[in-house]
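ARCHIVE CARD
Drawer: 12
Card no.: 0347
Subject: one protein chain, sequence and derived structure
Cross-reference: see card 0346
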Amino acid sequence: MARPLGTVTRGTTNPNRLRRMDRWIAATHGAELRRAATPLAVDLGYGAAPWTALELLRRLRAAAPRTEVVGVEIDPARVAAAQPYACDGLTFRHGGFEVPVPGRPTLIRAANVLRQYDEEEVAAVWERLCARLAPGTPPPPGGLPGSTGGPSASTGRLPASTGGLLVEGTCDEIGRRHVWVALGPEGPRTVTFATRLSSLERPSDLAERLPKALIHRNVPGEPVHAFLRDFDRAWAAAAPYASYGARQRWIRTIRDLRADWPVRDGVTRWRQGEVTVAWEALAPRT
């Protein structure tokens, strides 16, 4: 067998750490999983314990009951340790960025995996993983009028025929703050910022959890820096709404923010402490 692609991560994990990412995936990609003939999700680099793979199975099956999950780890000792937790719909395999599963996955989740890599390596990893994704499925008869290929502004759901999804991002140790990029077979689509609102002093606190493709670009002159600056300004302007709670302040902040930035979701997701922005608005300048 060829050597798996990639390097061993620290493997740090905690139960419920990826709940924000999982909830977003189930809400925005559940329809694609339900449409798939054989819905397969991959938890790539699940770490030293299999908790995140178990949780992913439970959350995805609530949205798409036929979904199966494969946990993939590059460290064979971790794969062996996870085997007792295999169950109906969940298996574990030794591998890396080659994603050693049959067929093309409908979902690949890679959380806290690329953090240890150099920024220059990210594009090649994304390209390799996107090439493994399932192609788009046919839309319903008549298609989706007005669809632009991005998530619906009202629901946050991706339209039909979007194909498989790669979700790659970073979160803190207990999952209070999380930022991820969503990619399809064609490449990056969106960036989502998610947080426990009661723990947030200002939106730019999320900068420390930017994925590797963006974290070194949070400097003047780069789009992500300008976005976080405007996010903080809108948050400060929405301070009067704090008397109604952090959630109402967050919602008001995003309503103001979308006047200048291509926000791709709606109040249903904002209420969860999330906001999703088009990738092209935050992409690094060459």
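Annotation on reverse: The first helix runs from residue 19 to 35. Residues 139-150 have pLDDT under 50 and may be disordered.
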